[in-house]
Fold this sequence. Notes:
The protein is α+β, with helices and mostly antiparallel strands and 130 residues long.
Amino acid sequence: MTIDWDALRTAAHQVSRRAYVPYSHFPVGVAGLVDDGRLLVGCNVENAGYGVTLCAECGLVSSLHATGGGRLVAVACVDRAGAPLMPCGRCRQLLWENGGPDCLLATPSGIKPMTEVLPDAFDATDLRDR
């Protein structure tokens, strides 16, 4: 499958404009390519109780499952200017579980597989095998 990184970053940048960020004023957009060719997006949604704020990647993964599931192949997460962002730890785990070790992520230091982004990841096999 060919990955159009420019299209992913553009889609992520466009959806970042829909982010609900009245507290941080830091919009984030994310776009992901699914193994069946779908392009999905998500944006961050803040809440006055910061601990329950939804990261953009949460929206992406929710959209993945709401539209039929599948596996993420490639993901781009950007700030308001379209510059690449590294997902937080919780979101790295979400991406791992929904894309696996071969899912590619556009990071500030280049395209990396999830094995580099989240080495020694914990997932369902750990739960099953132990």
